Structure prediction request, 142 residues.
Amino acid sequence: IPPSHSPATTDAAVDLASAFTDDAIASSSQRALMTASEVATTSSLNQGDFMILAGALSWSTYIFRTSSVAKSYSELDLQFSKNVLLAVMYFGWFLTTAVTSLLAAAASASTSLPSLLASGTWMEALAPLWSGWASLPVWVLL
Prediction:
């Protein structure tokens, strides 16, 4: 099927481009006069947008690599290995964040880490890691 070059297709492309501009362009006649360089110079892409695009690229690479590796392993063994690896990495992430939070709380209280742990205020230091930790409905859902 040959590509469509109808006005509706052109308008859709311009609408997509204008979604990334800082100011909305009022009329369709102004949109029709907008060049590609104008779209590029009025782009409002920021660091967060690039992080999302990098995450999407990373996820696509992960899917592609997993599908190529999966052909030579049993499904159950591959899923088990993946889950164990993710659990280890998530635990490492949690442990690093928890220790960092506890050390920051000890420094702000001008005390040592063992005395912070002995005083029982360590739970307040870790509470910001997950704001829903004390919510019964959240635990029921889990």
Remarks:
- The radius of gyration is 26 Å.
- Confidence is low (pLDDT under 50) at residues 1-9, 20-26.
- Helices lie at 7-18, 28-33, 36-41, 47-70, 75-108, 113-119, 122-126, 136-141.
- The chain has eight helices and no strands.
